[in-house]
Amino acid sequence: MLKKIVIFGVGLIGGSVALALKQQPQPPRIVGVGRNQASLQQALALGLIDQAETDIEQALTGTDLILIATPVAQTPAILRTIRPYLSAEMVITDAGSTKSDVMAYAEAELGAQLSQFIGGHPIAGAEKSGPAAAMPSLYHGKNVILTPDHRTAPEALNKVTHLWQQCGAVVSQMTPQAHDEVFAAVSHLPHLLAFILVDDLAKRDNAECLFKFAASGFRDFTRIAGSHPEMWRDIALANQAALLQELKRYQTAVSELTHLLEAGNGEALMRVFTHASEARIAWGEANPQRKLQ
Questions:
Q1: Which run of H or of E encompasses 52?
Q2: pTM across the whole model
Q3: Total structural domains in the chain?
Q4: In what order do the strands lie in the sheet with 51-52?
Q5: Sign of CA dihedral 183, 189, 195, 197
Q6: CA distance 261 to 248
Q7: Could you report the per-residue pLDDT of 172-199, keeping only the tens digit for each?
Q8: Residue 185: domain span
């Protein structure tokens, strides 16, 4: 049983973990740590955390588990800060969207205590951020990927697995490399495409007119362009190699589509659209909680 948890970054991701844990019969004491004091005070006022702390040693005293739920680029500095105060019983995990870089950070900063660290990635979120966006049901039925290796302590893996299961998540394991390749394709690339489309339209002279008449198709395709810019900048740079490969594949597909359109090849366009439509419908039926309404 977890008695005390420290969360670095009590926004949508960290705050939703806190709210989910507070629904347990015997919730742990939750301490929030962050660089934005206004955000921490908001988390405290909303009841996400029991204590807002700036003193790291004080925050970690008696802690069972530390969750790093900040933008990925902050991870090494946080690990460096907490290392002097880690006991052998503490477990550290994160909620970042890339894992190869995070595991490298942990190895570099934690040394022999790497066995206490478990990389994690909850596959859930929303375009809104901050403590006010947190919701206790965010992880219900959602996937969480953990990336342990041969050095991971079994008891640490058990604690982190149990943490996410208490939040209602379905826990799986991958290697960091496999994780980053998969999510470059199905998460990181879609976010970049949404960002760049909205940015392009917003720069045009007739942007006001374009946005005025944009409707449900634009809304559905670009919803994720409202996501946390700093977080997605960090993700793009952290998963650069895999993401560049996906961008090249996408550019090839766009080029092929351009040639079909230029040639007026309706038959080939129909084949592409039909294949995509069937694949999307099959995915929606296999994942009813994600099916378009």
A1: strand 51-52
A2: 0.84
A3: 2
A4: 51-52, 29-33, 4-8, 65-68, 91-94, 117-118
A5: negative
A6: 20
A7: 999 999 999 999 999 999 999 999 999 9
A8: 178-262
